[in-house]
Structure formats: C-alpha cells, structure tokens
Design brief:
single chain; 347 residues; alpha+beta; Jelly Rolls; Phage tail protein beta-alpha-beta fold; 3 domains; 7-stranded mixed β-sheet; 7-stranded antiparallel β-sheet; 9 helices; 29% strand; globular; membrane; transmembrane; Sensor; FecR; Ferrdict_sens_TM
Amino acid sequence: MNGVPERQPSYNEKRETDVISQHLREQQIREEAADWAVRLSQGDPDPATAEALARWCQADPRHPEALAFAQATWDALGQLADEPAAGEPPRRRAPREAARPAPRTRRRWRWASGVAALLLVAVLGVDAGRPLLMPLLADYASGTGEVRRVTLPDGSEVELDSRSAIDVLYSDGERRVRLLAGEACFSVAPMGGDERRPFVVESAGGTTRALGTRFLVGERGQGAWVGVLEHSVAVNLEGVPGERVLSEGQSARYDRVQGIQPLLGLDLQRASSWRRGVLVFDRVPLAEVAEQLNRYRTRRLVVTDARLARREVSGVFRLDILDEALDTLTHELHAQRLDVPGATFLY
C-alpha cells in the first residue's frame, strides 16, 4: 500500500519452514499411533472404531508402520508397569484360572495400563526427529554418538558434539556461525593481516564474540551457555544493553528471562570431556546422567523410579561403549532394566 515491496522469505527460510512442518507432521503421527495403541489394548474395537482405524491407516502410508511400532512398544511396557521398583519385593501374580479379576486386581490393571500409557508417550512423544532434520537445515551436523571436527573457510576449527549442528554465515563484515543444536567448541583463526572480520557465534537469541581463540557454546534449556578455554569472549543478549566479558576458565549462561548469569564452579574440562571421547560424572543424580547419555544413544534412556533417579553417579563413560557402561551402571545401582523398541527403562 505504501509502495514498499514486501520482503520475500529467503531460500533457507523456506527450506527451514518446510522441514519443520514435515517434522511436526511426523511427531503428530507418532502421537496418533500411541493413542491408537492404547485404545486397541483395551479389547476388540467396535465397528465404528474399527472403521475409524482403517481410515486412519489408509490416510498415510506411514500410519501402519507407526502403529506397529507403537503396539510393540506398548506390549513391552506392559511388562514394566507391573514390575516392582528397585529394592521392592516381587509382586504376587493373580492366578491364571481366575475367571473374573477381583476389584483390587482390576484397579492394579488400570494403574498398570495408565503407567504403560505414560511410558509409551515418553518413548513415542519425544522429539526424536530433530536430529534427523538438522542435516537439512545446517551446513555441518553430527549424528547420534558422533563427535565431528570441521574446518571453516577462514581456517577456524569447530568440534561438534553429538547431535549438534551449525550454519556458517560468513560475509564481508563478519564471520558469523549460528549454533542450531547441541554444543560446539570453537578454535578461532585470529584477526590480523588480511583477516579483519570479528568471529561471532549466535545461539538462543544471544551472541558470543571471540576475543581470543578457544571457547564452548551449547544449548541450555531455553537459552545457551558459554565457557572460555583460552583468552576471552564477549557475550551479548538481544534486548539487554551492554555485554559480559568472560576470561579464561569462566563460564555463563543466558536466556530471555534471567539474562546473562555466571555459571559458578563449572569444570570446563569435565564439561567438554566429550572432545576426548568420554563423559565424566562426579556425584551427579542419575536423572541428569540419563539426560546426558541420551545425547549419544539412539535408544532413549528413561528412569521411571523417582528414588533411583536421585541416586548419585560417579564415573568415566567411554562414548564408544556406552551400552557396556550402562550394564555396569545398572548392576552397581541394583536396578532393573527393560529394553523396548526405541528406549531403555531403568527402575
């Protein structure tokens, strides 16, 4: 209306929108399949339900496969829901010859089914597709369990942690890298000679400008965190005046709610141990250990017992033999383990 042409989305923006839309649809299919698996577990469907299921399966060739996976997971979770937690005595089973379950047995069955339904959502409802999307959106990405090193056009080096991705947006005025997912260590080619452009890493609404050579940037909740291994960096958060300069050994986190906050007592060598092919834990609750391990495993680790989740773990886990480490962890904690398609449960 005012004669100013509307801005058209760039190719990368269109690509990102298309891929995200596709991912949201995949997530919706997994959730619908989980719902059908729960409904079908309650007995033979009535004609109307059977007809609705047939229409759903015919609507998309991905639907039957998703349903089969959901039902297999549901069947396996049914075993877990009726098992005692770590340290509890075994539950007594109702006799098979009982023609009609007693009220307490029926209540237990409903409880077990509810637990299994929640666990099914934990397996199928996770954002499992995101790592698969990153290679389509990023210039460089690492797979599950992969630590990847790349060299940028100016000679700077980037080490990508598992399931991490970056976009390289170099221009005449600056060397900008956008962290799309995960965590990365940047070893920056210094300014000088013909190189006058600053090196900037963008993540979660903030930027980290290199004032030296080596630093870490990673996702943290709805924000990001920064740690300096050598020299210093300047951290800026969009909408917040000023900048925070971090020196060697210092770290900080930022988000839009709390701004830029120091991370006191963080051991950066331990936090970046993935660069050496290991994960190091010192008195860390099992729930947090599981969250870290899930970055490196295709099969999601879920701790279903609250007391077990609070148990502290210390040790060094090699990334190339995490399944063996998980076996040892299960034994040391006197926990029980159940493997199902897509997940491992500790309880």
